[in-house]
Amino acid sequence: MLSVQELRRVLAYFFLLTYLVLLGITWDGVDFASASSDGVLGFAIVVWLTYGLIYLLPALTLTWLVEKFVHREREIGHKAVFYPLAVVGTGITTLFFYANAKLFTLYGMFINSFVINLVATPGGLESLGASNASNATFAGIAAAFLLLQALLLAITLFAYRRFGEPRWIPRRFFSALLILFLVMTVGERIVFAYSTATGVTSISSLTQKIPYYIGISARGFLRQLGVKVKRQEEYKLVKGNLNYPLNPLQVEKPAKPYNVVWLVSESWRADTLDAEVMPKTWAFAQTAKRFTHNYSSGNGTRVGIFGMFTGIPGNYWFSMLAERKGAAIIDVLKAQDYQMSFYTSAKFSYPEFDSTIFSQVPSEQLHEVKEGLGWERDQKNVGSLLEFIERRDKKRPFFTFMFFESPHARYYFPPESVIRTPYPDDINYFSLSKEQLASNIHLIKNRYINSVHHLDSQFGRVFDYLKKNDLLDNTIVLALGDHGEEFMENGRWGHNSAFTDQQTRTPLVLWVPGMKPSVYEGMSNHMDVIPTLMPIFGVKNPQRDYSTGINLLSSEVRTHAVLAEWSGTAYIDDEVKIALPLSVVATQHPRVTGPHDEPLSEKEQDAAFSRKAKNLTGMMEELGRYINKSGKN
Length: 633
Description:
Elements: H1 4-26, H2 38-70, H3 82-107, H4 113-120, H5 124-128, H6 132-163, H7 173-197, H8 201-207, H9 219-224, E1 241-242, E2 259-265, H10 279-285, E3 289-295, H11 301-310, H12 317-323, H13 328-335, E4 339-344, E5 366-368, H14 374-391, E6 398-404, H15 434-468, E7 475-481, E8 486-487, E9 493-494, H16 501-504, E10 508-511, E11 518-525, H17 529-533, E12 561-564, E13 568-572, E14 577-581, E15 591-593, H18 602-611, H19 613-624, E16 627-628
Parallel strand pairs: 2-6, 2-7, 3-11, 4-5, 4-6
Antiparallel strand pairs: 1-16, 3-10, 7-10, 8-9, 12-13, 13-14, 14-15
């Protein structure tokens, strides 16, 4: 039986082996190649070495507490709880950071509040589109990590009992290791604080790729020491209760109300709307108004659909959700006795549209198809949508919305929709390495193109029905994507990870009865939809009362776009694209590129950011316009 002291030594060696495993897992996540100098490279290595231990601290602390306060010396031999705790704690840690590394490789993000929300919200996991093969692979990997930790512990115990304390390791090795860790971690934080205070962005840029890096700010202290500290603009959101719309809407019911057919597709990127991939939608677009430079209101479904239905930026999502506030346009149309029926091939609960933009829509008017692949659900929902229009009360106007799922990863389509080959039969997220993803991305994109071709067939069913039944003379039709989809054009796959053009630009096709066909090449945004529609429905308020957008049927010109994601925002105009967190803090710095993601030198980035300071202040006004600054209802 091991003594207390021997048990502690065994566990120290076990955790040391686990630390080496974590270093291997996190190696690819640190962008050593981007280090601009030997000093930056050294900083990266130190952070990698120290954070490997920091990641282990929860499991290490829990194991130490159990050993310290639960077990007495005579009970140490009873390993039924103690050893499994060490194995499970370290197994969960290594599995978590493996999943984290895989997520960053595929999507350019770490496990964060967005991912946690995705897992915890009903319908979130289904929205990932993982296959049975992916789930089985993950289960196998999880078991393998637990088995690995059990094996490491068994090897450590066997070696210690057989050979005793390794002679080549000094007795105070772990104490020295702890001192070295403290020196290194304090040192790298001092370097970080100094570099951010003096405007050296190479260090802060590198830390953006370190999972859960926590830097420190010492600007005031350094200034007192005589260091020339670079001025830092700080942009913070105003906090308070939601005040949307700013004033009660004044509505004069139109003499001839139009019907509305609102079609939105998951992950429909701008460059797929052409005669080859989407012939039916392309033909319809030639008869309508087509916007060729349209941005979503964000890089994800939540903010993309939120922006198009509310006309305000995605940062208001959280307030809308907390207050169960719905989109103003729904209230306007309900007051005019519109018949409503909404359909989704995903879920109305993820994102929580049934608690935000559609919160005032009765649940019986929100329809979901839960069985089948994405393309099968789309087909069934289109059938139900057309049946609703067919059976409607023809004396009353109707409003129907549908969210299509076919182009969502894993990209769904039937055999007859194949126009691009070859393509993989499945996408196994958990077995894809960075190298495999890069070498196979063109095949994965072929799957996506096929799924968009199938989407076109379903859009076509709606367009054909409206035309055949002479409904286009009194029906507004919208077709647009919630956001785009990137295929490694800028180093990412999918969406929700960056404000690149591929992730944020979508088609926008607008049919209004009596409007001449046209192509608009200026900038447009999802938040322009509501200020375009509201006057048609008789709303007399100035659009500022209910939207930050512009009326696309007027002579107004959009000079910039404001996009949002889970915890950040972006400003885009014809000169620059600036992505920044909703509150600039020491560890988060703006990402500045050209308007279409062109890389800029550090000097060009600083100049562009300074030049646009006034514009960014205006952006913050938009992001805070619909907040009651007093905090009172």
